[in-house]
């Protein structure tokens, strides 16, 4: 029987188990973005992302990385306006805030209520768990042909599914 395997903990819901050593390794980010600063940055970032200026800029081009650059510039500006000086690590900390504060469930909930990309993130709301049987589903090949997921695990070879958003 084909089972769901474990994955990386980058999308953490706040209740995931993290070793003390791993949690301690994120102390720099927690110091760089203490809770009050983090929440202020997320509020300002949300304002910037929703602004007419940003929305107009996002509607202009579909060149590679164009939208990512605009979104990251909003994050950098929000951090800068809130006193964060290490913008490179600040951006890393902001993008992994749920993970670095995974033991502070109240803060994680506050982040989810503020940040649009956390509020509407349903990646942690899955009914699949490690060890569950793989459900059947229809997929499409890169050329658009329909194919069943089971056709990939019909052999004795292991199957790794990597999913993500390309929007």
What can you tell me about this protein's structure?
The protein has helices at 20-25, 27-32, 35-50, 52-58, 66-81, 87-95, 97-100, 105-114, 116-119; strands at residues 138-140, 146-148. By secondary structure, it is mainly alpha-helical. Strands 1-2 form a two-stranded antiparallel sheet. Helix 3 (35-50) packs parallel to helix 8 and helix 5 (66-81) packs across helix 6. The longest helix is centred in the first third of the chain and has 16 residues, at 35-50. The radius of gyration is 19 Å and the shape is extended. Residues 3-16 have low confidence and may be disordered.
Q: How is this structure best summarized?
A:
The chain has nine helices and two strands; from the N terminus they run H-H-H-H-H-H-H-H-H-E-E.
- Characterize the largest beta sheet: strand count, sense, and whether it forms a barrel: 2 strands, antiparallel
* Cross-sheet strand order for the largest sheet: 1-2
Query: What value does the Rg take, in angstroms?
Result: 19 Å
- pLDDT < 50 stretches: 3-16
Bulk shape? extended
Order of helices and strands: HHHHHHHHHEE
Structural class call reads: mainly alpha
Number of discrete helical segments: 9
CA(first)-CA(last) distance: 33 Å
The average pLDDT value, as a whole number, equals 79
Roughly what percent helix? Answer: 40-55%
User: What is the strand content?
Assistant: under 5%
Number of strands: 2
């Amino acid at each position: 029987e084909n089972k769901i395997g474990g994955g990386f903990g980058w999308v953490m819901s706040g209740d995931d188990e993290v070793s003390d050593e791993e949690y301690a390794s994120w102390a720099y980010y927690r110091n760089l973005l203490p809770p009050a600063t983090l929440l202020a940055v997320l509020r300002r970032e949300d304002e910037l992302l929703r602004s007419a200026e940003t929305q107009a800029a996002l509607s202009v081009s579909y060149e590679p990385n164009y939208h990512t650059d605009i979104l990251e510039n909003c994050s950098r500006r929000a951090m800068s306006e809130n006193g964060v000086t290490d913008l490179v690590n600040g951006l890393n900390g902001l993008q992994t805030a749920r993970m670095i504060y995974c033991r502070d469930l109240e803060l994680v909930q506050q982040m989810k209520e503020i940040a649009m990309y956390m509020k509407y993130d349903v990646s942690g709301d899955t009914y699949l768990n490690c060890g569950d049987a793989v459900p059947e589903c229809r997929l499409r090949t890169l050329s658009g042909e329909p194919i069943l997921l089971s056709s990939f695990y019909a052999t004795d070879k292991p199957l790794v599914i990597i999913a993500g958003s390309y929007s």
